[in-house]
## 1
Amino acid sequence: MSEALKPLAVVTGASSGIGYELAKIAVENGYDLVIAADRPEIVEAAQAFQGMGAKVDHLQVDLSTKEGVDELVQLIGGRPVDALLANAGHGLGHAFLEQSFEDILHVVNTNITGTIYLVQQVAKPMVQRDKGKILFTGSIAGLMPGTFQAVYNGTKAFIDSFSFALRNELKDTGITVTCLMPGPTDTDFFERAGMEDTKVGSDKKDDPAMVARVGWNAMEKGEGDVVAGFKNKVQAAMSAITPQSGLAEMHRGMAEPGSGQQ
């Protein structure tokens, strides 16, 4: 495949974790990349992917802002995007009333506002071409009230719901929309969210490479959603039949500060 004919994948949150693994899989499948993250490690990630033979454009940027998303769109330029992997996001632990509202806004604007703004900018040209794939990184957290993680779970409930709505709106086009719903994954998520002393933060977690592969395969098949990992599939099924009050109490046991200390 000549370099000029390589498809292009845009991956956000690609400096580490699931996003890094998604970008790696894209390269392994013959894609060139435009990658972005808010961490300086995005430079090292770009170098690694270039070493695998891909043409890579990278950007360290805050995707919680409209200006940051505009920078990324400008980097993409007029190139057709074959796959958009909207993975950028972060969490926020502890009690809602103890959280800084600035931190709350940053989570909401990263996980929701910046994500849907980017999707709108990238998906419009996809529709004009009648070709493209979109993968959201949602979460099984969106299926339950997030006691001591209320804002994060709320944002993921939005993304899980939004992805299905957009999928239905685009069902008569050549665009597919898939939502990857992982459970706790071995990334820096819990450290950044201040949740290392919680049960969910200290328990064993899924391999991000496995999670990314599950999401990528679902996107390639055009599936609507996929839950990564058997344990998470069971939890997702239970959330559909358990009362919301019970789910909130269950989440307290996982995310309450100090719950990881024995």
## 2
Amino acid sequence: MKLIFEKSKAGRGCDILPSCDVPVVELDDNLKRQKELRLPEMSETDISRHYTELMKRTFGVNDGFYPLGSCTMKYNPKINDEIAKLPGFSNIHPLQSISTVQGCLEVMKKAEEYLCEITGMDGISFQPAAGAHGEFTGLLLIRAYHQARKDEKRNKIIVPDSAHGTNPASAAMAGFTVINIASTKDGYVDLEELKKVVGEDTAGFMLTNPNTMGLFDKNILEITEIIHKAGGLNYYDGANLNAIMGIARPGDMGFDVVHLNLHKTFSTPHGGGGPGSGPVGCKENLIKFLPLPRVEEEDGVYKLILEKEESIGRVKGFYGNFLIVVRALTYILTLGGNGLKYASENAVLNANYMMHKLKDIYKMSFPGPCMHEFVMTIEDLKKEKGVTALDIAKALLDYGIHPPTMYFPLNVHEALMLEPTETESKETLDEVVEIFKKVYEEAMSNPQSLHQSPKKTPIGRPDEVTAARNPVLRYHF
């Protein structure tokens, strides 16, 4: 397939614009580009065909099974998009009069109230643009809390080795020193290791629960109490909330700060279909540090709080990605409290069903039951047949399904992490289980074949080493 620049023809275009009906204002030369922007020149027909061809090569949750672990790639109900497209939500401007967007402010306030109820928090900011941005914001709250108490010695954030990679990165960006601790052989936080590193310099502890192995930590109350007794705060990475919403709340587990991924748990477009949204919630004693503006209601009128002395300030322009909040609220109102609980229960059921069906063929890293996801290790298969987790993932592409997460979590060698989500039917899971079995049989009987997979996709097996060492990231004119 040719790049759009390769299809470009000088002088070709498709713009038909009316004459300008307002005075033309020319920018000063120092504000203008020194070179013309090099954009492709194409007819509308060619543009339409180009992007249609790209679309056909793109795999999404609407195309088939998408078990990307820890990312909750579940189906997004179309009603969410329909509500977000209503003119009263989509045709507004962040600088227009507050009196003209009362409905939008009510959406933000209602979403905050419901998400506080779901998480056990007392206040939420919708400013962060995505999950990692939410982590960074939450850590700024923790830093502000200690600084306000003149407790400057607290500069360490403890992170387990099973954490998402963004956790230590966010902590470092927020100015903390990261302390990694090992997990137990069962996949949980090692309490003895935690006790060794916690102390007067502990600012906080970051944890995903259930964790990236799909395990709910049975010692969670003891873990958060250890941190609190040391004077630190507990941060909850909400990436895996899809397993527990309506069942357990981070606030009840002893967490002080939480970020949510609306683009995962609350069924809004994800990744390239974004933008994302990573709201941050906190307990009452941290609300004064939240980014502004925030919405408050008084006598049925909604207003924006624009200034508060102890706020950490803005972390994004205006109010965050508002239409993602609209979609999330639509999802919450559609399902209701019982529906959210039912969704989590089905996510856990689907993961356990698939794990049970595969456990006699693939080696599970940790014995069940799991929560919303589970981790398999291909380490033995690699030793016996030379087949890696990457080979398995590539082979799955030929069967029209998206491969699971590879080589994560880092404490599992040759890992494949599967999260089937609650929106997949039993029939789909059964079909996928059979595909995994076929791939395993092929690995045992003809391992060389898997080294050449995929064979049926538009692009075959790339040279991974060359791609990593000599990436081609832009078009050279």
